[in-house]
Structures are given as C-alpha cells and as structure tokens.
Amino acid sequence: GVLFLVAWQVWVVISDVQPFVIPRPSAIWQAFVDDFDLVLKASIVTGMNALVGLVLGSVFGFVIAVLTNRFAFVSELVNPLAITIAAIPAVVIVGVLNNMYSLDSQIPRRIMVTISVFFVVFVQVAKGLRQNDATQMELMRSYAASPFDTLKKVRLPNTMPFFFTGVRTAAPLALIIALVSEYFGGTQNGLGSKISGTLNSANKALGFAYVLGGAIVGLLFFAGSNLLEYLVVPWRRRARSK
After folding, report:
1. 93-151 pLDDT, tens digit each
2. Helix (H, G, I), strand (E, B) or coil at 88
3. Taking CA 224 as the corner, what is the angle to CA 218 and CA 226, rounded to the nearest 5 degrees?
4. Residues 6+ apart with CB under 8 A from 90
C-alpha cells in the first residue's frame, strides 16, 4: 500500500495531474463514527453475500472433492469443468448472472462468491484426500475395512486441516469477490457500490470509512475461520502445542 501511494504521487508530479487527496485518518475515523449506521448497513449486506457464498462454496467444494476421490467418473466430469470456469473472468460471470436475476436480487453476487470459494476449497480437499499415512491405510486394509470406513476414519480426519486451510484462504477472497461483484450492476446498498460512489464525490472521508468497514468484516471472516478450525479440529490444536 505504501509503495502504491509513493508511486502514485511520483506519477502525479511527473504527469502534472490533479492528485487524489487522501483524507486525514482523523477525518476518516470521524466519518466512520458519524455515519456508523450507513457503514454498518452496507457491511451487513456485503458480509451476508460473502458469508452465504463462503458457506455454500466450502460445502460444495468439500463434497465434490470427496466424490471425485471416490468415483473416477466424477473427476472426469468436474476437473475439465472447473478449469474452464476458473479461466473465465469474474466480471463476465457477474454480468451474465445480473442479467438472469432482478436488479434488487443479491443472488448473482452470492453465486459468484460461491464459485470462487468452491475452487479454492475443492483443490485443498482433493489434495488432503491424497495425503494419507501409509501405515494407517495399511492397517485399514488389514482389517478388511470398507472404502466408506476408510474414508470416515482415515481420509476425512487427515483432510480436515487441508479443508480449513482452504476456508482460511477463501474467507478474505469471499469478501473481495462480494465487493467487486457490486461494481457491475444490481442493488447499490453494499460496500462495493458505496465505496465507488463516495470516493468519486466530495465526501472522500466517508468512502474510506466504508473501506474501513470492509477491512473489519474481512478480519472477522478470517478470525471466524480460525476459531472454527480451533473448535472442529482439536487434534490439530494438540499437535501445534507440542
């Protein structure tokens, strides 16, 4: 961020363009306090879009990765499709989705977040399902365990740290995608549209107050994903404490 600001100011001096004046931190904080209700409402809208997409994308990514590991034909169907969709720019997908739903719908943004999160979690879970202790697998084979029992008692427990790595990575990404999706049509009550509108107006302090609101939501997402891992994967916690 500091390097960007320095580069920007150098470019302004060289090109003799009117600089973008950043408000003082005290002015930004004052705007955040004075218009807290506005920032909170926009943060809730964007945060809910990101949260719904994060949950759905994580669930779908986990389930599809397990099915891909268990059934070869699912892998043959999902992998080419995943590569194709991942190569499409987000702005294109958001534009198509916005035309499919009404202007006051939040569904397009939630679908976009779900798609983005899905690929992150899918890759991590698929990797985790392949990272199994050879001794444990050999023991399960000696017990003549069924594939389902092996999945439940060996593969899934070993995969959970990878799953939460994917969730931690996808948590801030979900918020970023939700913010970016709000720039391309739809309702104008989220952080993305509010930031865009206020930074282009005279009240730039309010624009940065919305940015501060987004940063707080992002920190909450990251902290929540770490707390969830702490509660759900206790053996990971014990391993770190040794």
Report:
1. 777 777 787 777 888 888 989 988 998 898 888 888 777 666 666 666 666 666 666 66
2. coil
3. 110
4. 112, 116, 177, 180, 181
Contact 198, 213 (CB under 8 A): no
Q: Are 181 and 90 in contact (CB under 8 A)?
A: yes
- Vertex 175: Cα angle to 172 and 176 (nearest 5): 85
Give the gyration radius of the chain's Cα atoms: 22
Exposure letters 104-143 (e unless 16+ CB within 10 A, then b): eebebbbbbbbbbbbbbbbbbbbebbeebeeeeeeebeee
pTM for the model: 0.77
The CB-side HSE value for 92 (13 A sphere, CA atoms) comes to 5
Number of residues that this document lists for the chain = 242
Residue 79: both structure tokens together = 């992998």
Q: Locate 17 and state its tokens.
A: 């363009």
User: Over the stretch 200-241, which tens digit does the pLDDT of each residue have?
Assistant: 777 788 888 998 998 899 889 988 988 888 888 776 665 555
